[in-house]
Amino acid sequence: DAGVIQSPRHEVTEMGQEVTLRCKPISGHNSLFWYRQTMMRGLELLIYFNNNVPIDDSGMPEDRFSAKMPNASFSTLKIQPSEPRDSAVYFCASRRTQLGGEQYFGPGTRLTVT
Amino acid sequence: TQLLEQSPQFLSIQEGENLTVYCNSSSVFSSLQWYRQEPGEGPVLLVTVVTGGEVKKLKRLTFQFGDARKDSSLHITAAQPGDTGLYLCAGVSGSNTGKLIFGQGTTLQVKP
């Protein structure tokens, strides 16, 4: 399997622009997670899905952030409008089961908002 | 809110030295995982400990889960430059969600 695929790997945008991050989980995995990692705050869970349904979005910073999972093989995380404080590495991870087990992380998208 | 505190945050040692990283919480977790992350990559699972008091070994790495399932440690014997990276502990929430709570991480640098 190719592992979790994320695109783009790097994104540089100006404040106020819309940013869309994409993720393809490992085939057959039922859970998908979006994380944000910064030096100050470490790895933070933003939202996760079980069987394409959002289960917990309490980590989403504010209404500027939204995530969708229209099918089992694709998810997006959108920031609109983006702000400099959104600069971070965003990881997508997937897991085979809903309640436990290993999470497989993608390579991340490094977002820089100027 | 469940929190995990890791210590130390940074560690720089010489090749061949031993080290221990700690992961502590006031909350009970159903299990705990340790991940390692290298620059430019996502975290990769090293081990999962499930039972209180459990000890698992992975070559020179020894992982222990506290008896009360609130804390864990990672001990590396005779560290090598290839061990350099960010080590993250993650507690599996006891609720029926399987949500992971990550610690802040320990950055380890092993100098040759």
Strand content of chain A: over 45%
Specify the overall morphology of chain A: globular
Q: Count of helical segments of chain A?
A: 0
Structural class of chain B: mainly beta
Ranges of chain A where pLDDT stays below 50 over 5 or more residues in a row are: none
Whole-number average pLDDT of chain A? 94
Question: How many strand segments of chain B?
Answer: 11
Low-confidence stretches of chain B: none
Average pLDDT of chain B, to the nearest integer? 92
Give the distance, in angstroms, between the N- and C-terminal Cα atoms of chain B.
41 Å
State the major sheet of chain B: 6 strands, mixed
Number of distinct helices of chain B = 0
Sketch the major β-sheet of chain A: 7 strands, mixed
Biggest protein-protein contact in the assembly? A-B, 24 and 22 residues
Helix content of chain B: under 10%
Tell me the radius of gyration of chain B: 13 Å
In quaternary terms, these chains amount to heterodimer
What helical percentage do the residues of chain A reach?
Answer: under 10%
What features would you describe in this structure?
With 114 residues, chain A is an all-beta fold. Chain A is built from no helices and eleven strands. In chain A, strands 2, 4, 5, 6, 9, 10 and 11 form a seven-stranded mixed β-sheet that branches. In chain A, strands 1-3-8-7 form a four-stranded antiparallel β-sheet, with no helix packed on it. In chain A, a hairpin with a 2-residue loop joins strand 5 (42-50) and strand 6 (53-56). The termini of chain A are far apart. Chain B is mainly beta and 112 residues long. Chain B contains no helices and eleven strands. Chain B has strands at 5-7, 10-14, 19-24, 31-37, 44-49, 55-58, 61-65, 71-76, 85-92, 100-102, 106-111. In chain B, strands 2, 4, 5, 9, 10 and 11 form a six-stranded mixed β-sheet that branches. Chain B is globular, with a radius of gyration of 13 Å. Chain B starts with a strand and ends with a strand. Chains A and B meet through strand 5 and strand 9 of A and strand 5 and strand 10 of B.
